[in-house]
Amino acid sequence: MNSASSSSSLRRCLTSIALILPPAKFISDTFYSLYRVQGSSMEPSLQDGDILLVRKADILPYLDWKRWTSSSASSYEEEEANQTALRVIAHDAQSGRPIGENNVGYTYLHPPTIHQLGAVVVYRAPDAEKYPSSEYRVKRVVGLGGQIVRPRENWHRIERIPSFSIWMEGDNNNDEGSIEDESEKDTSTVKSSTTSNNYCKSIDSRTYGPVCKNLVEGVAERIIWPPSRWGVVSTDTPSVPRSWWT
């Protein structure tokens, strides 16, 4: 009797796991994932041990399109943000990105539309083959596709950012760090270098140029661990603008 009861409980447990794992895996791969920061390269915004909630797709993107094209912006800042978003997706469209009314049929769109300077983004390193232990990196968006950008600590250098690309740099001047994909932690740990803003040692857009959005994993939205640091990831921009539309 006890053996039959134990077998029944085991079957129910296995059935529950079988029902939960596929949708959980789909959500992790498509919509949201957890990443853990290692090192101090993104301080003070991100600190060693922070676990980030990263959004990997635009969910119901037609709602964003309706907001950006709305004529009911409540402030100059909102209208400027809407115009920036429209410029970005117009440049993205040159690489085949669906925009406008074409978005209506989409429940989600990957990668997310990155149109905000200062956003923190997790992406696959363009030089991952050269540095296999540094597959993922996390940086802050300094320039958008279609803009020109002046890299930090090299004011004589001007770069043009291609469509469907972004210019990424770190926050901290003095250290290096990494980020770990928590969703793969139980199988194969994947780490990535999150380098600093020190021009001589940094491995970011100042080293390999603009990052194609096809390499983007997602946008870091919240710090969910430790509890003392729970909150929204800040979207800081330089006090002196370093990117412009042409």
Name the descriptors.
246 residues, alpha+beta, ten-stranded antiparallel sheet, 4 helices, 15 strands, 24% helix, 27% strand, globular
Radius of gyration: 20 Å
Largest sheet data: 10 strands, antiparallel
What is the overall number of helices?
4
How large a portion of the residues is in β-strands, by DSSP E? 25-35%
State the low-pLDDT regions, or none. Answer: 184-201
If you average the pLDDT, what whole number results? Answer: 78
Instruction: Give the number of DSSP strands.
Output: 15
Share in helix? 10-25%
Shape: globular
Structural class, by secondary structure, is: alpha+beta
Order of helices and strands: HEEEHHEEEEEEEEHEEEE
Distance between the termini: 77 Å
Task: Explain what this protein looks like in three dimensions.
The structure is a single chain. This protein has 246 residues and is an alpha+beta fold. Helices cover 24% and strands 27% of the residues. The protein is built from 4 helices and 15 strands. Strands 1, 2, 5, 6, 9, 10, 11, 12, 13 and 14 form a 10-stranded antiparallel beta sheet that branches. It has a 3-stranded antiparallel beta sheet with strand order 8-7-15, with no helix packed on it. Strands 3-4 form a two-stranded antiparallel ribbon.
What's the gist of this structure?
The chain has 246 residues and is α+β, with helices and mostly antiparallel strands. Helices cover 24% and strands 27% of the residues.
SSE layout and pairings?
Layout (H helix, E strand, L loop, with lengths): L1 H29 L1 E8 L11 E5 L2 E2 L1 H8 L7 H18 L14 E2 L10 E5 L11 E9 L2 E3 L9 E2 L4 E5 L7 E5 L9 E4 L10 H4 L2 E2 L3 E10 L5 E2 L10 E3 L1
Antiparallel strand pairs: 1-2, 1-10, 2-13, 3-4, 5-6, 5-13, 6-9, 7-8, 7-15, 9-12, 10-11, 13-14
